[in-house]
Amino acid sequence: MSSGRKTHSEISFQENINTLQREVIRLRQERKLVRKKVSETVADIVYYCKRHAKDDYFLQENHSNNPYREGKQCAVM
User: Fold this and answer.
1) How big is the chain by its Cα radius of gyration, in Å?
2) Can you tell me which residues the record assigns to a coiled coil (predicted)?
3) 12, 41, 52, 70: which one has the fewest Cβ atoms less than 10 Å from its Cβ?
């Protein structure tokens, strides 16, 4: 006679099914992703960095307009 309550093993089995269904959905989504070679991606990153280097305060030689430069030291010290 079942009281309508699931046993621990039934709950665990259902959780496993749910987990596997989510995994299948995720794998189907990943299958649709366009893959790109690492060498191409690295070349794109290098190109981006070189193109934007002039705007990077850490790469500029003129430190006078760098908002991240260290401030003046405290006069008390």
Assistant:
1) 29
2) 10-37
3) 70
Instruction: Identify the DSSP state of 68.
Output: T
In one letter, which amino acid is 18?
N
For 36-45, what is each residue's pLDDT tens digit? Answer: 999 999 999 9
Other Cβ atoms less than 10 A from the Cβ of 60: the count is: 13
DSSP string, 2-67: --SPPPHHHHHHHHHHHHHHHHHHHHHHHHTSPP--HHHHHHHHHHHHHHHGGG-TTT-S--TT-T
The pTM of the whole model exceeds 0.85: no
